[in-house]
Amino acid sequence: MRIQDIIEGKKEWRAHMARVKALPKDYQIVYKEIQKYLFKVGPVELTDGTGLLSGIIDLFEEGAALGKGVLEVTGSDVAVFCDDLIKNSKTYADLCQEYVNQEVNKTMTKSKDKTKSKGEYRD
After folding, report:
1. pTM of the prediction?
2. Cα→Cα distances 63→25, 58, 95, Å
C-alpha cells in the first residue's frame, strides 16, 4: 500500500466520521454500536473502504431528515438489522472455515497418498 493510499484512506475516514458527528445524538449512539458489531462479526468488505458504513449513514441521514427516531429506521433489534445488512457477505469466520477445511483436506490427501504408496491403504 502506498503512502498516498493511506493518506486518502484517512481523509475518507475523517469525512465519514464528520457525517456521523452531524447526526442526531440517538443516531450517533446506534451507529457506533452498529460499527462495533460489524467490526466484531467481520464482513470482509469492511476493509474495502467505508461503503457499507456510508450506506448506513445515508439511511440514517434520510431517517433524521424525515424526523424519525433511529429505532424506527433500524427496528428495535439492531443486531438483526446488522445481520440483514451482511447476510450475503463473506465474513472472516467464513474465510477461517474455508482455510481449516482446505488444510484438513490437504493433510488427509497427503496421508492417504502416503498410505497408498506403502500398500496399507484402507478407506
Report:
1. 0.71
2. 13, 9, 34
